[in-house]
Amino acid sequence: MAELLPLPSRPVEPDPLWRHLVGDRLRRMRHERGETLAEVARRAGVSVQYLSEVERGRKEPSSEIVAAILGALGGTLLDLTAGVADDLRATALAPATLQAPGAVLALAA
């Protein structure tokens, strides 16, 4: 008879923080345009330091600041939101999440 052994379950990864996803997406948008932090910060009316912290996910920007940065990048809230949704889908479909906790493996005796 086969002995059932529990498979080790992988720790469930928490969802990434919104500010990290937004920051990553804003940085990608800036890089795609080939612009510096200083150029975008000037047009958005924020400091270079603040924009850098937003891109690194260290600051939780207000909706007004996000709108100003997006305007400086020539983007829209829809562009940003759709991009963040794509990133979340990619995270959810990562191979580490495919193994259900508590799954068992049957071993032949």
Automatic annotation (TrEMBL):
Keywords: DNA-binding
SMART domains in the cross-refs: HTH_XRE (SM00530)
InterPro entries named among the record's database cross-references: Cro/C1-type_HTH (IPR001387), Lambda_DNA-bd_dom_sf (IPR010982), TransReg_Diox_bact_type (IPR050807)
Species for this entry: Microbacterium barkeri
A Pfam entry, by short name: HTH_31
SUPFAM superfamilies given in the database record: lambda repressor-like DNA-binding domains (SSF47413)
Domain of life of the native organism: Bacteria
Annotated HTH cro/C1-type domain residues: 26-80
GO molecular function: DNA binding; DNA-binding transcription factor activity
DNA-binding as UniProt keyword: yes
Keyword Chloroplast belongs to the record: no
Protein name stated in the entry: HTH cro/C1-type domain-containing protein
GO CC field: cytosol
CDD domains: HTH_XRE
